[in-house]
Amino acid sequence: MKENSNYLRLMENLEYLKLKQFILHLDELTTESNRNISIVDLLLKLTDYEVDTKRINTANQMVKTAAFPALKEISSFDFSFQPNLNERQIRDLCSLGFLENNENIVFLGSSGVGKTHLSISIGIEAARHRFSTYFIKCSNLLENLKKAQEENRLESRLKHYSSYRLLIIDELGYLPINEGDERLLFQLIDRRYEKKSTIVSTNINFSDWESIFYDARIANAILDRLLHHSSVIQIVGDSYRLKDIVNKD
Description:
alpha/beta, 12 helices
């Protein structure tokens, strides 16, 4: 069979159509032991291989496109180091039901307690399930929006960041927020409100938000939209980055 012209033409066609899984698995599915398999079952098995591979490749590409600074899986998070965390709640969020309901997540806690790790872990799950996802530090986000405003292309930037099914804004409040930044952030949060999901990590208590923004009214409006339909995860504990040092002592 391998030597006949039809087989060679078939291989050429499969190469042209980029059906790599057909090429890899065709011989094994057309052996003597599979002689009684129907043409429908044969094609079904071959297309299953193609579909599974394309799904994996698509998921991997979406994770790459999300621009995570590191790939931090939920399986590598040490819940024993942060015993106040509700592990069941975090794993439930990883099931992505909040995305279906256009809900938000806010991680609140001091530096190093694991907010970014958990944000990325949930984001990876979302990307692997083919939800468009993007990760960005709050300072970079505001810088990009401010630059776009100066170049008269703010509308396109807002549309860009509003388009993601899940937007992760990391480290809100870690760096100073300049006058006017709150208006830019409000426009983005308002566009996403009840339409898309946003994850925010911050070290600023909600009662102190008025102090970090120049306009307290807008600060409250941002907070109101973030917290409505939101899961607030407060993490109280030692720095997660120092856990290995702590465990050695």
